[in-house]
């Protein structure tokens, strides 16, 4: 696994971490995981795959000197953004606009009814 993940690569540490995570964890699963396991999610920090990812990232010459803390920062950020991937952000924006339109429509109807 380590050898395979090390071949994925990237242009810098962040890109390497994110490329590897994209190959290992499907976004639907990523939405159920975070670093510490808070909010009824599974913790990533205790998984064996974390150490494999740390080692695989360092096999990329452009990320060879990355510290655990730096790599972990990018892992945490990748999980934080999982809700935005796969159209999540766009879907939330559409829902928000629909709610606002419905609210505006309801307010207009209520004002007309009282006249």
Summary, kept brief:
This is DUF4806 domain-containing protein. This protein is mainly alpha-helical.
| Radius of gyration from the alpha-carbon trace, in angstroms | 21 Å
* Termini gap: 71 Å
Shape by Cα distribution: elongated
How many runs of DSSP E, i.e. beta strands?
2
Number of separate helices: 6
Q: What is the structural class?
A: mainly alpha
Low-confidence regions: none
Organism: Acipenser oxyrinchus oxyrinchus
Protein name: DUF4806 domain-containing protein
Description:
It comes from Acipenser oxyrinchus oxyrinchus. This is DUF4806 domain-containing protein. The protein is mainly alpha-helical. It folds into 2 domains: 2-83, no CATH class; 86-115. Helix content is 63%, strand content 3%. It has 6 helices and 2 strands, in the order H-H-H-E-E-H-H-H. It has helices at residues 2-6, 13-24, 27-30, 48-58, 68-80, 88-114; strands at residues 33-34, 42-43. Strands 1-2 form a two-stranded parallel ribbon. Helix 2 crosses helix 4 (48-58) and helix 2 (13-24) crosses helix 5 (68-80). The chain is elongated, with a radius of gyration of 21 Å.
